[in-house]
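note to self: the first set is below, dont mix up w the second
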Amino acid sequence: MAAKRFMERLHEGYAQVMELSGAPLAEEKSAYQRIRIFDTVANGRVLTLDDIVQITTRDESAYAEMLTHLPMLEHGKAERVMIVGGGDLSIADEALKHKSVKEVVLVDIDGRVVELCREHFPEINTRAFKDRRLKIEIADAFEYLGRPQSKECFDLIVADRPDPVGPGKALFGETFYDRVKGALKSGGFATFQTGVPFYQPSEITDALRELAEFFPQSGLYLTVVPTYIGGFMALSWAGNGRNAKLGTPAGIRRARARFASAKLNTDYYNPDIHAAAFALPEWIKRLVP
């Protein structure tokens, strides 16, 4: 009998196929989306939402660590962190590794994602669930950002948003970026996943154009997450202040020193990767407005 397979067709004319090992661990329709969790031969355990891959245990570090440690080490004293989405808690786990952090607020609209990931992804989130600094809000992150109590509240906001479909649509566009800016403290940073430029080139151009309208500093850096097919993955950033800029030589030097003293346990991030992430191939540079 042939092995069961999962096919993701995210980009026109291209698909990836994963061979499953064993029966699916979870497969249900929540109030917002179809949730599936299964083990694979090559990529470890996988979470998909509406048949789009969100995380695999084999390469989640390349995504979560770069969205989190890079801005936090340049900031140096982030105390309050907000995560938009992130129901698997991989990003929360990374943020909580920093001793300066007093609170991590994770806001996800779909409580079933959080519940199922707590059950099926213990290797990446058990420490986070046990950490008293973690606060989980099952709510619409767009609405949460607009609350008066969120104003100028966070040193870092990580938008672990899905692709702009379904409930994730509200987490893209000018109104969303305006709310993110309003929730950041002066000198704070926000980071966003901005797609795979090889297949989603316009996402970079559109996001950077919109970020520049609201933030005095913004830009792009890269990571490589094999499961997010297409090579490089673009991560955009914004700084709330004239001097809140990522990737400067001074910022990279400070991050290197802080990484050495913090003794962070990482699988992907290190200071050399930090510096290299801001080097863009020419074809990606041409996408930057």
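second set (the one i keep forgetting abt)
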Amino acid sequence: MTAERICKLLRLPGLTDYGEALVLQRRLAQARASGQLTDDLLILLEHPRVITLGRGARTANVRTPTELLASLGVQLHEVERGGDVTYHGPGQLVGYPIIDLGRHKKDLHWYLRRLEEVLVEALKSFRITSGRVPGYTGVWVEDRKIASIGVHVSRWVTSHGFALNVSTDLADFDLIIPCGIEAVKMTSVQRETGRTQSIVEAAEAVARSFAEVFDLALEPAELASIR
């Protein structure tokens, strides 16, 4: 481990509005690219119920009319990440790494595989054996998808990231065709283990795995210190 390879760990409590988190990560990614932010950063949080459409999204993959989504209190955002349609909500651990791939490896496919590895290793903490499905991005438990990944890279600095279903209400995925994959089965840590699971415990497992996979030393940080 090189002393210079520091990653700030920012854990936001409660539920963070998706629009606010989007503004935050865009600003921090720009700061990382300009050198104003000198260390890599991993943001871990939960969102209220929200559907996001990536650059490759088909609107038909949102099964639910916009008016009904609004009445249900589900936000809808079109964003610059790769991938199709996905859902975020309480009980789902969302990670936004703001890292400079120039300090790691300038290879988007390498980065995606490393994020998958982070989640596969973290799930071992819950005695869940997971892996990849050829042709798809994300992490699966046999034929059930437990984590989604969609990223954006500009000037080799990353934003957006991954979503791990911990104790998520899986019925909410019926609002969409998740990741544009017809008949996909979604699952969660709680469903696979049959036990109530803590989002805090999941965040700790993911943070440890992230540090190991990317060879980084994590340093806890407060939002005020990196604004």
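remember for set 2: The first strand starts at residue 6 and ends at 15.
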